[in-house]
Design goal:
Length: 601
């Protein structure tokens, strides 16, 4: 057998939901990461609580690629219901660790099989039924450590890190992992395998593993959020759960949490609470996913038209309707951008990394205050609920931007010239006061119905038109305040545009395309409304591919509306929407096919 491939493989565990496999997979991930090797975990889990198949895929890449790859090189198969399907997906020459009672009759002959009596081993060493079920997964961690030559002290490190708040659980988990490790050494040591792991230097120095929802929650704390209202929904629930934990740690004075976190009766009420808090001057937010966004449409229109600041996190999943609740997609961008009836257009932030989840969460509150409007932060299940490598987050240095808020002294100086919805600076943004401002002129009536510059009720057509034109002007002003696109250009004829978690597949796809002789430039969108530089990027390229994770090419459509008509024909759409995170090959293959079908003159 040829020399094994070092530090470059995809591992997959096929187990049953609710069996404790998540902890085992985290131990393995952290053990490998502690060896200095870049990792990229992807968790595919069912939408029920227990019993259905679940898969955990771990990308291990010396180049630090973070996108999903697809077919595994090493498979742990512990679910008889998916055994045949799981075998079919392993790469030729791959290794399969499986429960020895599974039948291999008629199985592929191009794989290496390593049967292990997991059930028998667990029964001989673990007496408690529930604990046996959970620790069986830790046995496979030890077996995988043996196969890939992971030092056992790294497995111990992963156990301590995963169960850091439960030190009493360490001995039992270490024993279970040791049981699997020793079994490998006794029965399979010396077997030539296709992949091994070796410690690396410099690849992950100073990095940590963080979920996007955790990063966003910490960003809310740093952004001055004092009110959060939410209703549980996958995949956004962990954001507000983490926010509560951070508030207990960092917003705690005298044993009392200095932050209001309210679990409302539904998503509609959650946004209503957040809008009310925003009107009162608090920095307020809610977190939800697509079905919750659908319910929030009317209240979003109220906040837009009455000009009340609020931040809404949308951790996207597969729709429409209930869709696939535990799969990922970018299917809400077109809906969110113009959410609510009538003419509405919102500020939308599109983080592509966990660092941006942290930073954009902070920036969202500044933008909401500055522009007095709802601000959406669109993440997705892949970015929000999976672990990602990142540099430690920076502590914010800039003060909060509260925007155009008038004090009593300001009102005394202005006298009768102030009007709640009057544009005096030409940027479309009016001045506001906060409840409790002690001045006779501070009060006004917040209206979701027609109103004039002084917040008085009005159905006058010219007044309505004037107000709507001002709101459009405010939206145009926001173009310069939204996070600018990230552009990487080498002067290629072909361009790529992507956003959000799709970014990681595009990074790898650019390298693969270059290896196949096609250099491409790349622009990553980070917010809406789009910066004017986006149209300039399209103009500099003979053809530009828009890559996204939805069926209809929603950003592609927005771009065609945004760029001049003569440039719209240069845009092409690449879409991936099966609910799994997009791999690089899903960018490379259709792009090359389209280029070959219609070559650039």
């Amino acid at each position: 057998m040829s020399a094994p491939i070092v530090n470059d493989l995809t591992f997959q565990a096929a187990t049953v939901n609710g069996s404790g496999s998540q902890s085992a997979n985290l131990v393995l991930t952290r053990a490998i990461f502690s060896m200095g090797i870049p990792v990229a975990p992807k968790n595919v889990f069912p939408s029920n609580i227990e019993g259905l198949p679940t898969w955990y895929q771990l990308r291990i890449s010396p180049r630090g690629y973070q996108a999903r790859t697809g077919d595994p090189d090493v498979l742990v198969a512990l679910n008889p219901a998916t055994w045949t399907e799981d075998l079919r997906n392993v790469r030729p020459g791959g290794a399969v660790i499986y429960e020895e009672t599974y039948s291999t009759a008629g199985a592929r002959s191009d794989l290496q099989y390593f049967p292990v009596p997991f059930t028998k081993l667990a029964k001989t060493r673990i007496q408690h039924d529930t604990l046996r079920k959970q620790l069986t997964n830790m046995i496979y961690v030890g077996v995988v450590a043996g196969l890939l030559q992971i030092p056992f002290d790294r497995i111990e490190h992963g156990i301590r890190r995963t169960f850091q708040t439960k030190p009493k659980a360490w001995p039992a988990n270490v024993d279970a992992a040791r049981l699997g490790f020793d079994y490998w050494q006794e029965h399979y040591a010396g077997h030539g395998v296709g992949h091994v792991l070796r410690p690396m230097q410099g690849a992950v120095d100073g990095m940590v593993l963080v979920e996007g929802n955790q990063a966003a929650a910490l960003g809310c704390i740093m952004g001055g959020c004092t009110v959060a209202a939410w209703y549980p929904i996958t995949p956004s629930s962990s954001l507000c759960e983490a926010l509560g934990a951070y508030a207990d740690r960092f917003r705690n004075g005298g044993g009392e949490r200095r932050m209001a976190i309210v679990q409302a009766e539904d998503e509609l009420a959650a946004l209503g609470i957040a809008i009310g808090a925003g009107w009162a001057g608090a920095r307020a937010m809610t977190s939800t996913s697509g079905p919750g966004i659908s319910l929030m449409a009317e209240f979003t229109g109220l906040a837009y038209y009455a000009e009340v600041p609020v931040v809404i996190f949308d951790i996207q999943r597969v729709g429409p309707s209930t869709g696939l609740p535990t799969r990922t997609q970018q299917g809400d961008v077109g809906f969110v951008y113009t959410l609510s009836h009538g003419d509405t257009r919102h500020l939308v932030l599109l983080p592509g990394t966990v660092e941006e989840c942290y930073e954009f969460a902070q920036q969202a509150f500044d933008l909401a205050d500055r522009f007095q409007t709802p601000v959406f932060v669109l993440s997705d299940l892949d970015l929000g609920m999976n672990l990602w490598m990142t540099r430690p987050f920076r502590y914010p240095e800039r003060p909060f931007d509260r925007g155009k808020v008038l004090s009593a002294q300001d009102l005394e100086r202005l006298q009768a010239r102030w009007g709640r919805y009057r544009d005096v600076d030409g940027d479309g943004i009016p001045y506001r006061t906060l409840p409790g401002t002690e001045h006779p002129a501070a009060a006004y009536f917040t209206r979701g119905s027609g109103h004039d510059e002084a917040a008085g009720y009005s159905e006058d057509p010219e007044t309505y038109t004037r107000n709507m034109d001002r709101l459009a002007r405010k939206h145009q002003t926001a173009r310069a305040a939204i996070p600018a696109p990230v552009v990487e250009e080498i002067g290629a004829r072909v361009g790529l545009i992507a956003y959000g978690s799709t970014h990681h597949a595009v990074v790898e796809a650019r390298d693969l395309l270059a290896e196949r002789g096609l250099e491409v430039d790349y622009l990553r969108l980070r917010g809406l409304p789009m910066a004017r530089s986006v149209a300039d990027f399209v103009a500099r390229h003979q053809r530009t591919y828009v890559v996204e994770q939805n069926r209809d090419g929603q950003m592609y459509d927005l771009l065609r509306l945004e760029v001049p008509p003569e440039l719209a024909g240069r845009l092409r759409s690449i879409r991936h929407y099966d609910g799994r995170p997009i791999p690089a090959e899903a960018v490379v293959r259709p792009l090359l096919e389209l280029e070959e079908a219609v070559p650039i003159p």
